[in-house]
Amino acid sequence: METTGVYWIPVWKVLEGQFKLVLENAQHLKKVPGRKDDVPDAEWIAQCQQCGLLRGSFVPPLEVRQWRQLSRHRTKLVDQRTSVINRLHSVLEQGNIKLSDVASNIMGVSGRAMISAMSKRESDPAKLAALAKRRLKAKYEQLVEALDGQLNENQRWMLKRLLEQVGTLEKEIMVYSERIQEQMLSYRTQLERLDTISGVGQRSAENILAEIGPKMDQFPTDNDLVSWGGLCPGKDKSAGKQRSSKTPRGNKWLKRTLTEAAWAATFK
Both 70 and 163 in a single domain? Predict the structure, then answer.
């Protein structure tokens, strides 16, 4: 079975008359290329098991697996929202509307109001710029210049549909967030501790907790956690020479969350 690019092999182990299921990473059991066969594979796995060379992979409890389902699907919804916003950017650019050059976030209150007005056939740059709120008001002249474009009927129709898609996705993201908060209610203390880390917000804290769980027994040290998340440098050294090596494969969901948190902390 393939899971996020990593192959897992079930191994049965006789222990005190009982069978125990161990999930092992196939990357640790690579055989010599060109000699792949099921029977030699089974013999090699059995030999490694007898010698105590196999380490069971981290299998979180059912509660944590349910958190993962919710948080990972929410992440996909966030990605879909980003994709829709990018298409909205493209439609504006096709009409020579340079709103993103002035407004850092076109999906803010001001940006949405302007885009909504454009979808309703408003084309006067001065009237569109007058919809700016708060700090964006100070950029009135720049907005007038940026909004001086020409959208055809088809592009206006697309803007309306894309705005509705963004709104629908945002509602779904909110519903998933409420569900996650409800299921993690008993672990509010852990979430608050994670939230104190620079660059980590509520959503990032929920994603981290969903990936590693509330207990750290499976990670003896912080180095083990970093390695499992695929955030440590690779090791490839031979004859005293350090060769180029990339970071290993790890939990891509945890890796993404921690990377985003690191970037957020950098720009604070």
Answer: yes
Same domain, 164 and 210: no
Cα gap 228→197, rounded to integer Å: 20
For residue 12, the enclosing domain spans 2-50
pLDDT in tens, 14-39: 444 555 666 766 666 665 555 566 77
**Residue 211 parent element (H or E):** helix 202-212
The total of structural domains in the chain comes to 3
Same domain as 69, residue 44: no
Cα 205 from Cα 194, distance rounded (Å):
6
200, two tokens: 């980590």
pLDDT confidence bin for 225, thresholds 50/70/90:
confident
CA distances from 157 to 94, 162, 164 (A): 14, 9, 11
Regarding whether 169 and 67 lie in a shared domain, the answer is: yes
* Residue carrying the six token digits 């007058």: 130
pLDDT value at residue 215: 87
How far, in Å, are 27, 101, 117, 210 from residue 127 at the CA level?
61, 18, 9, 47
User: Within this chain, do residues 104 and 191 fall inside the same structural domain, yes or no?
Assistant: no
Q: What is the pTM of this model?
A: 0.78
Query: What tokens does 260 get?
Result: 């985003």
